[in-house]
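Session log. Operator J.P. requested a structure for one protein chain; no other inputs attached. Running the standard single-chain path with token output.
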Amino acid sequence: MSALTYLEAIVVGAFQGVTELFPVSSLGHSILIPALVGGRWAHDLNVSAPESPYLAFIVGLHVATAAALLVFFWRDWLRIVSGFVSSLRHRRLRTSGERLAWLLIVGTIPVGISGLLLEHLFRTTLGRPIPAAAFLIVNGVVLYVGERLRRRADTTAPVPATTAAGGPGSARDVDAAADARLAQMSLGRATLIGSAQILALLPGLSRSGVTMAAGLLRGLSHEDAARFSFLLATPVILAAGALKLPDLVGPLGAGIRGPIIAGSVASFVSAYLAVRFLTRYFETRTLTPFAVYCLLFGSASLIWLVIR
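Structure written below.
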């Protein structure tokens, strides 16, 4: 890993920032791309190795991605943190900020516990190219089936967007209206949607993809499902990165801290641009193109890895 150049770090970082938020699995791509490139990349960028320096690099990229989400949704997080504090102070769940704060907490608990118990096992046993390609195909199936079932269902979002938003307005008004819609979910529904993130521990299954599919099946619109998915992902990605931050200052980060910083900056920029694009994309479009991509890329990767 010490041979990692700044150019390689920037390319991998930019790729990570996009694939972490697009419903195509960043971990799956982090495993598949080095394997498909081959050579030193396949040797050095091995996420399944217990003490691989690549893990320290990935940690920096995850923290940068979470930072991009915090910056993009800063208005939402101000309301959420304020709501959490006021709910504790007044012992109530009355405002949208108070309700949304606790919806995110209960939605995050299942994956937090599962990640602590299973992340290492899944990464070391399944974090290899062929399983990652197979799970990427499964991810495409999940996205496609989620879309098909959503179209056939008669369920709708808790409150129609036009009713809650009250027509065109400032970005602050639109964000507040979206948070108000999400806050009307029940704790049980939020827990079910948040629990879908557990599947993303499997390399090749996308966190944003499975939570969006779960949100669609629970009656959310594409726009609100994407928003809730990104809000749910922020503390999970940040916590996962913070938990492994000692790797950056320990032996695993020795000799690569410069490339880690360069890659993290690239990851921050690409993640910010990705979430900005996706929040607009899902106002009118669906998961189907991402499902097709996962099916095609996963199948092609699996065939190549098996026959070569």
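Operator note: Residues 160 and 181 are 8 Å apart (CA to CA).
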